[in-house]
Amino acid sequence: MATAIARHKKFTHDYHSKHSRYMVKEYSSSEVEEVRYEYKTLKNIQNVVQRKIPDKHIRESSMIRGPKFLVRLRSHTVFENTPVKLFCKVEGYPAPKVTWYKDDVQIDISSGKYFVESNAGLHCLNIIKCGIDDTAQYTAVAANSHGQASSLAAVIVKRVKDDEKFCPFSWMPYEYAIIPEIKYTKINIEFLETFDVKFGKEEDCVTLSCKMTISPNLANLQPEALWYRDEHLLKESKWVKMESGGGVAKLTLTHLAKDDEGLYTLRMVTKGGDAVHKAYVYVEDGPPPVPQAPGAPMDIKIHDANRDYVIVSWKPPNTTTEGPIIGYFVDRCEVGTEDWVQCNDSPIKICKYPVSGLFERHSYYFRVRAVNARGISRPSRMSEAIAAVDPTEFERLHVERLGGKLDVVAYLDDLEAEGTAPGAPSNVYAPETDRTYVVLSWTPPVYNDRAPMWYYIEKTQVGSSSWQRVNTQVPVRSPRYAVFNLAEGKEYLFRVLSANMYGISEPSKPTVPIQTQVLRGVPSAPGQVVATRETDTSVLIQWAPPKEPNNLIGYYIDLCVKGSKDWISANHKPHKKTEFVVHGLKTGETYVFRVQAINELGLSEESQESAPLSVKAALKLPSAPYDIALLHCDGQSMVLNWKRPVRSGGSPVTDYYIDKFSVAKKAWHEVNVPPIKERLYKVPNLTPGSVYQFRVYAGNLVGLGNPSAASPLFRCEAWNMPEPGPAYDLSTTEIRDDSLVVEWKTPVYNGGSDISGYYVDMCKTGTDTWTTVNTSAVSTRFLKVKNLETGSSYIFRVRAENAHGVGNASVSSDPASAKALPGAQEIKCGVDTKTGDIYLSFESCQITEKSQFVWKKSYEEITDFSKGLAVTTAGSCSTLFFKNPDMEDVGTYSVSVTNTDGASASYAISSEEMKKMLALSHDIRHPIIPLKTELAYKILERGRVRFWLQAENISSAVTYKFFANNKELVNCEQTKMRHDVATGVIEMVLDHFTQESEGTYAVQIQDGTGKAQSSLVLIGDAFKAALTEAEYQRREYIRVKEGPHFSQFLSVHIGEDASVSLICKVANLKKESAFHWFKNDVEVIPDVPADLSSGVCKLPLPLFSKKDVGVYKATISDDRGKDESQVDISGKAFDNIITELSRIAGSSASELVIQCTAEGIMLQCHMKYYTEEMKIQWLQKNAKIAASEKMRVGGTPAMASLEIVEPTEKDKGVYTFVLTDNEKTYTRIIELSGQVYDNAYAEFQRLKAEAYAEKNRGKVIGGLPDVATIMEKK
């Protein structure tokens, strides 16, 4: 028998085209038990069906969006007057609505007998007290826009018979079921580490993690980790990854978008309840494609998906500093491709857009980009894939049984049928209207024919009588359709006609006039904004909603520091409520806030700014104290101790109050009227032998908090045991990844003897196994516990020991996780380089406005500062100074920071380290001023002498004294003294330096506490040299001042053209002044006389060589006097000139050339200047050539040459010319072989032949006379 596909409980399907069929595998519980098909048989049947499929096979997972029961209802049998609960769990998108039915009649919830609960897909029907009339079949129907599903269960209520009331079990009240009550295992979950508020940017990856203890931890009964964002259950996807197990639950947001911003909740669900933790995640805009472009839109939603269109909506971004948004572009991408196509040609201004022109049965992704005057934003996160299909696709299916577990499903369109035209639809209305389109919905007519049915929609404007058919080309099969291209603000009437292959029905009754929306604009500005303190880094913002919401979407909150106008966005995703907690603020900073409302058209005007608010924690009542412990009892009183509240409420806890409860009298009474300031109190006036309980209240500036839980029962009996009582006030500090320090206080009760030591026990949190940390007792009241497992949580207890044994253990400490705070630092020890004070410095990785640094020695708080201890605190850094350090300061020092998560550290100063620091401190406090140079002298003009030294550093307060032969000199005209703070130079200028000035000179310097001294011995030859120089400078000064003189003495100048000349400058001349040159005291008359008018005199030395060696002198004189200057050009001076000429020659040397002569082959190197004094070598095949008649080495002033006389075959090879100066070697190479040699040799032979011919031909020695007279016959 054919069955509608919607009635099948569990199935999977493969989807095909209109004329194709489905192959459906149904899984019925009974059939699974009766028949089990082998894989091979099932595969063969599927292959047969597949061969009959004519069209292309596609899978569209996005089409299955209807409700689905994950947990179905279960039947129950109960006795009357007992409660029963029916549970089911449903998933679907959009979230399905569940309706409950009893025997196919909807249950009336208002009767008070039934209660319905829904939470995150879990639905429950609770029947408080069952009666016989509650026996029925109950149905849960889940429905959304994509379909519906149902689940059935039977409830049978039994009545207890009268004869059963007197059975052997008649003692049991008849209203209770005989079936024992189900008791669930209570699982306790305690969070050890939780995630805090997170701040990220688009495209970042963020992980939220919680570490917990589960007790009992049963492998087959693990809690379920459910993650929510803004109370919406999250599921695993490409954007969201979840991990759970091993006491850890993690949520990873792999690729952040602003859609991910919100309040995240982890709910660990067990049978006995749940454990919940929440924190907010903020997502900032990523870097824009162009500066000042808007942020990306978000929350892309798809509505009314049909055969050829969908409606896309989104939320606008905030524009705090960017320009206003002028519109949006909508893009689509077909699934399976990467090509994004822009859907609209020009930007649209509202956040909703109907995308038409889609291909039926194709799936698409959509995204949106915002546009402003600066550019286009980053694209939003793409939507989930949506298929363009007829929503009634699955309702038009027909099932045929093949046998076994397989059905073949066909469209009703494909079945043969005969009948009549359908009836008219009814109840036509518009569930959604917009400016240019209307979504219509109607009730289909009662229709039992097998022929397919479709619809036509017609419209008309109000006041017109002509109806226009809307869908002439595309028949509509679903009872919902969007009509586009309507005029804004106009009123329309609509009606619907049914049709099948046999005809068209009468039109439905027209709708009431439906008016398209008029663009109403953005919301009005929100009302008054009020900021309230929340924590040290967060503020609660509240505001009044806008008077004109205009389809309000949510709100954006902006903030800025008071006095600035640098507004930044507090949230990056619209917030729907009228209050919001802004996190990540700076403690103590003052802020102002404003709010903007958003709808699909954009952002409203800003609200008025809030009153400035300084960020501080709001004051609250303290939490309750806990862990009350009995430390001693003398039979009439008890000494109690308790742990301070976990939360102080933002104000220090100053008062405690104790109540006592006598078990005999069963009443609570106050113990103390004046408040207790310490957490140790002796409760007097107790009755011996009575049993008491106690509770403690904590009070702060706000008031009195809740009382602690009642203490265990304490009997008032005197303690007489010889062992000591328990230690108390256990605390853990200096927590690192593998160690921590446990501290405690001495027991109040010592027992029969003094306490000799302590044992520390530890236990991993969640276990009951205690192990002793120290094998031998420690005498101190602290112990560093090492080798801990990183990340594990531990608790500790302490047992005191005396001569009689070990006493009872203390109350356990609070759990401590072996994990260092992020950025935790250690104490630094050193010596102040300026004051010489020894110091211990600690910079805390956490700090609040109310934090205080507590310094301890041997873990006892330092309170005595009379010895010279001092503490200075600046920001997050605190320093303990030892003003008068000595060896008694050796020990262990620790520091802890209050109002933090345990920021603390310690440092042990050893005896060896203290000795080194004391020595360094002495050197700093009694410093020697370091000197860059010792005392020295310099001869100045006029024969004055400058005595000076230079210190590393001096201040303006420096003082100094100069001494000569142990006699202090005074600052006067004859001995002028001065100093320069910038350079550290201290000097004295002695005006008259004479024979009597011989002796020892010294200077003493003092700058603050620093001292320095330096001396100079000026006697003997050293003094004579100084005196000679001083006298010369006096004469020189007189010379320059009174007559003609040389302003620049004689020197050698070498030009780049290899010219050498002597140059000097003269000054203070007059017309009669005469200038002369001399060489070796012989006057030299230059070709060009000296030009005294320019003051520059020059003597050229052409073709410089050894001939120019000598002493040259220049004189200038007139009637006022004479001055002379000389230079010796010989030895080293001559060599230097040749070296420089070699450099010029080598730099200008040309490549070697061949020049043939009648005597041989000559190799030539042309250069700016050549002289035989230059360091020149000729090489043949890397062997040095010695000058000879065969190898003639020489040259001219313009070149160097090598002549090979009468060359032979042995003279072939590579020839190298080498010229060297003091820094560089210049080489030139030529290869004299092969054709080159042959050509040169031929030329040589030719020239040699010509020379020989010229030498041996006849010559006319004398000419004939013009007239000759000769005798006859001669």
TrEMBL record:
UniProt cross-references to InterPro entries, sorted A to Z: FN3_dom, FN3_sf, Ig-like_dom, Ig-like_dom_sf, Ig-like_fold, Ig_I-set, Ig_sub, Ig_sub2
GO annotation, cellular component aspect: M band
Superkingdom of source: Eukaryota
Every Fibronectin type-III domain range: 296-392, 424-519, 525-618, 624-719, 726-823
Domain Ig-like residue range list: 67-156, 180-265, 809-910, 1044-1130, 1146-1233
Keywords: Immunoglobulin domain, Muscle protein, Repeat
A UniProt-annotated Pfam family: fn3
A molecular function GO annotation: structural molecule activity
Matching PROSITE patterns: FN3, IG_LIKE
GO biological process: sarcomere organization
Name of this protein: Myomesin-2
Organism: Clarias magur (Asian catfish)
Lineage, highest ranks first: Eukaryota, Metazoa, Chordata, Craniata, Vertebrata
